[in-house]
Amino acid sequence: MRTRILVVDDDAKITSMLKRALTYEGYEVEVASNGHQALALAASQPDLIVLDIMLPGIDGLAVCRQLRAHSDIPILMLTARDDTADRVLGLDTGADDYLVKPFALEELLARIRALLRRRSRGKEPKILQYSDLTLNTATREGKRGARTFTLTAKEYELLAYFLQNPLRVLTRDELMTRIWGYDFSGESNVLEVYIGYLRSKLEAGGEPRLIQTVRGVGYVLKEQQP
């Protein structure tokens, strides 16, 4: 799965530029133009937030403060004010890093990479589970009951996305975009091929099917109905 970044700025030129640049770098990008939108989109737990201080309605400092009450998402704060007191205030509010406008795009990208590396090192292994299926996100090892199986990189991404969205019908377009990228096009049957790979591994011990086909729509991770 691609790393998700939320960009929050009321300057449409900046958000457009950052979305293009970050998408080109392989990130999945969402954009908010005010504090209320930022808090709503942050509820989906992006991997990192680029947050401008000067926002209409709820400013960036207030957004940061509210997020820090319940979340440790890395926050890179942007500001047009190059003042020590402002930088200290932003960091004390909970920002992980601080960048003054105008900034070099290369520096912004480097700071984002550094924050993501820091977050990755601090993460505990996470176990995703549905029914008797588990996936260790640290070792990328899958288990069906007591039986273990290995996964290729794309198989892992696809299975992890199913496990993060159990019982929800995932459309073909959504899966293609999430796993193979926003610009994947054509009539390729690559998704169907990988669904077949996963089913073979999940059902190798004779277990009942967990990835169900929703005809004309996509797929859903759920137990078969008797």
Overview of the molecule:
This protein has helices at residues 12-24, 35-42, 60-68, 84-93, 105-122, 153-164, 172-180, 190-202; strands at residues 4-8, 28-32, 48-52, 75-79, 97-100, 127-130, 133-136, 141-144, 147-149, 170-171, 211-214, 218-221. It has two domains: 4-120, Rossmann fold (3-Layer(aba) Sandwich); 127-221, Orthogonal Bundle (Arc Repressor Mutant, subunit A). With 226 residues, it is of the alpha/beta class. The radius of gyration is 20 Å and the shape is elongated. 41% of the residues lie in helices and 22% in strands.
Describe, in short, the structure shown.
With 226 residues, this protein is of the alpha/beta class. 41% of the residues lie in helices and 22% in strands. The chain is built from 8 helices and 12 strands.
Topology summary:
Blueprint: E1 4-8, H1 12-24, E2 28-32, H2 35-42, E3 48-52, H3 60-68, E4 75-79, H4 84-93, E5 97-100, H5 105-122, E6 127-130, E7 133-136, E8 141-144, E9 147-149, H6 153-164, E10 170-171, H7 172-180, H8 190-202, E11 211-214, E12 218-221
